[in-house]
Each structure stands twice: as structure tokens, then as C-alpha cells.
Amino acid sequence: MARAMFEYTKMILEKVSFDSTLFCKELQKAVSRLLPFEIKELEIWIKQLVLQHPKLGSCMTLLEGS
Predict the structure, then answer these.
(1) pLDDT, position 51
(2) Which of 7, 8, 46, 55 is 20 to 30 Å from 38 at the Cα level?
(3) Are the CB atoms for 16 and 27 separated by under 8 Å?
(4) Where are the domains positioned within the chain?
(5) 26 Cα distance to chain centroid
(6) What angle do CA 38, 5, 36 make, to 5 degrees?
(7) CA-CA distances (angstroms) from residue 8 to 5, 14, 29, 34?
(8) Does residue 14 contact residue 46 with C-beta atoms inside 8 Å?
(9) Could you give the dihedral angle defined by the CA atoms of residues 56, 58, 62 and 65, in that order, rounded to the nearest 10 degrees?
């Protein structure tokens, strides 16, 4: 079940990647719902996404300290 939430989170984040405000909001929700090891995995995935959408880089601060 948890893996499904992780995949769902990635799908949502990809869909809202056009708007950094929405992306940050959804990322904040994800950090509160996912397990610690999934957050680390998500961070790796988001770093790749930021290469395609540099404006999302400002949201990376939400992952620090998680």
C-alpha cells in the first residue's frame, strides 16, 4: 500500500510541475505522508525533475531535515 502512495505522489508532482507554487504545496503533503526512506527516494527523483524544470528548485528546501 505504501508503495502505491509513493507512485501516486510522483504522478501528482509530475502533473503539477508546471507551477512551482502547486508543486511545493503537493510536495509538502507528500513529506507529511511518506515514510522516511520514501522521502529520500523522492528527493532523488525530484533532483532529476528539477533538471527539466529549474523553477522547481526552490521547493527542495521542503525536503531538508526530513
Answers:
(1) 94
(2) 55
(3) no
(4) 2-60
(5) 7
(6) 20
(7) 5, 10, 12, 11
(8) no
(9) 120
